[in-house]
Write a structure and sequence with these properties.
Strand 15 and strand 16 form a beta hairpin. The strands form six sheets. Strands 8-13-14-18-17-16-15 form a seven-stranded mixed sheet, sandwiched between helices. The protein has a three-stranded antiparallel sheet with strand order 1-5-2. Strands 3-4 form a two-stranded antiparallel sheet. The relative contact order is 0.09. The longest helix has 23 residues. It has three domains: 100 residues, Arc Repressor Mutant, subunit A (Orthogonal Bundle); 105 residues; 253 residues, BirA Bifunctional Protein, domain 2 (2-Layer Sandwich), CATH 3.30.930. The protein is built from 18 helices and 18 strands. The protein binds phenylalanine (PHE). Phenylalanine binds next to strand 16, strand 17 and strand 18.
Length: 496
């Protein structure tokens, strides 16, 4: 019979505790196994017939809320009877003013049972009944104390215990089941015939280096067990495409940039010359976060945003601004980024006037109604080149080259508009007989670059990944890419 390392630890532990004794589950924690491991190992040992697991039900009493109060203070009947001893007589209608609800009712009812029922509208003291009653109350208190200390033995004071159990929330009765382990004959045989205490289930570098494997048994595998047939699933087509795109950029010497899904409108819009009170803010349907949290802008960021604000309103020398008002609080609003272009601006701010190319393939969010060519969450292939050499011609060359590397020979570049680039171009391809826009691009306007202190021209683009994938894989509908249909994925052949 083969048993696992944990099973063997547990079995030997039980054997050493005394082959014939019974050991509660919680004591097995001393074996060094966790409760979870003990549970699993013990049930396997039971299945293999090596141990018995006996389930025992145990009744435990705990103090209820009232019980705690009575123990801290007094039983209501105790207060009433003690008071009665002092005053000899108490009118019933006075009791309500001495005790609060519901203690007054409890005190009255209990006192009546202890020999002090109301008569002629009052309670009257009686020496012989009084001492008996107070003695009984004392016994009630003792039971509560024992429950609190966990020293209550069954059989002692059963009558009083029953009485207290009937009284609402004084004592709570709990049924607890505990497991007890006992080794069976085959278990003992196993321990005796396996001199090495543990079997090794998994060989680790530590076991090999320390040589501890020498005096332990190695667990054997049961080769007769039938394994499950698992079919291979390849890389997800989108993931495959992202890797392709990444390698195109990396081969060209680009650096990959990263950013956050949640972005301030300051970076998502202000930094891109999209003014605060301009309809251009709605060009992309934006998910605003309802959170009251606002980002902490650094001193430097605040200075930069004020520059963006001034330019939004007043423009630059030779360039007219939008007019209107700008305010810093507005730029602290948080959105799910609607494009990855803020990452580009953040990157430029950190690498001013360095000749460099950088990119990302990352997720963006827009409040779109979803259809075959629209998703509310999709990826943009973002990037930019900052260089003395940059021009519209370089941009056109780059876009053609990029799409050609992916097998697109017939993209069209058409004039377009973005608030932050001039000139701007869109990439258009024909999909399913219709023109589909794959993305935007352009040369950043001075209104964007000047506040950052950038002198070199910068060309930039933001291209849709999923729409590209649609044509790349010859699919009909963007939603196919996110259906998580294992069968579809299994049969999907990536074109290379
Ligand atoms: N950010 C634009 C979009 O979301 C694309 C773009 C990026 C356009 C860079 C010009 C320059 O569609």
């Amino acid at each position: 019979m083969e048993i696992s390392e944990n099973e063997s630890i547990l079995l030997f532990f039980l054997f050493e505790k005394g082959p014939d004794s019974t050991i509660p589950e919680e004591n097995a924690l001393n074996s060094g196994l966790s409760a979870e491991e003990i549970r699993s190992a013990s049930s396997w040992l039971k299945i293999k017939g090596l141990i018995d697991i006996i389930e025992e039900k145990e009744t435990r009493y705990e103090l209820g809320e009232e019980g705690f109060l009575y123990l801290e203070d007094q039983f209501p009947e105790e207060r009433l009877i003690s008071l009665l001893r002092e005053r000899k007589e108490i009118p019933v209608n006075e009791i309500a003013s001495i005790f609060r609800e519901p203690s007054n009712r409890i005190a009255l009812a209990q006192a009546a049972k202890l020999g002090f029922p109301p008569m002629n509208g009052k309670l009257a003291w009686d020496d012989s009944k009084g001492s008996k009653a107070l003695k009984e109350i004392e016994e009630r208190r003792e039971i509560l104390e024992k429950i609190k200390d966990g020293t209550l033995q069954r059989g002692t004071g059963d009558k009083i215990l029953d009485h207290l159990l009937k009284r609402g929330n004084v004592i709570v009765k709990k049924q607890i089941s505990r497991k007890i382990f006992q080794i069976r004959e085959p278990g003992k045989e196993y321990v005796k015939s396996n001199p090495s205490r543990q079997t090794i289930g998994e060989i680790s570098p530590e076991i090999l280096l320390s040589g501890s494997w020498r005096d332990k048994a190695l667990r054997k595998y049961d080769l007769n067990l039938h394994g499950k047939h698992v079919e291979r699933v390849g890389r997800h087509p989108l993931d495959y495409l992202i890797r392709e795109i990444r390698s195109i950029f990396l081969e060209m010497g680009f650096t990959e940039m990263v950013g956050n899904y949640v972005e301030s409108t300051g970076w998502n819009m202000d930094s891109l010359f999209i003014p605060q009170d301009h309809p251009a803010r709605d060009m992309q349907d934006t998910f605003y976060l309802s959170s009251k949290n606002r980002p902490e802008f650094s001193e430097e960021e605040i200075k930069l945003f004020r520059k963006f604000g001034r330019i939004q309103t007043n423009g630059l020398a030779g360039y007219k601004g939008y007019g209107g008002k700008w305010n810093l609080e507005e730029s602290k609003k948080l959105v799910l980024r609607t494009h990855t272009t803020p990452n580009t601006i953040r990157y430029l701010a950190r690498h001013k006037n360095e000749e460099c190319g950088f990119f990302s393939v990352d997720k963006v969010f827009r409040h779109e109604s979803v259809d075959w060519k629209h998703l509310a969450e999709f990826h943009q292939i973002e990037g930019a080149v900052q260089s003395r050499q940059t021009s519209l011609a370089t941009l056109k060359w780059f876009l053609k080259y990029f799409y050609e590397r992916l097998g697109f020979r017939d993209i069209r570049l058409v004039p377009s508009y973005y608030p932050y680039t001039e000139p701007s171009m869109d990439v258009v391809v024909r999909i399913n007989g219709k023109d589909v826009e794959l993305g935007g691009s352009g040369i950043f306007r001075p209104e964007v670059l000047k506040p950052l202190g950038i002198k070199y021209p910068v060309m930039a683009w933001g291209l849709g990944l999923e729409r590209l994938a649609l044509t790349y894989y010859g699919l009909e509908d963007l939603r196919q890419l996110y259906e998580s249909d294992i069968e579809w994925l299994r049969n999907f052949k990536v074109r290379i």
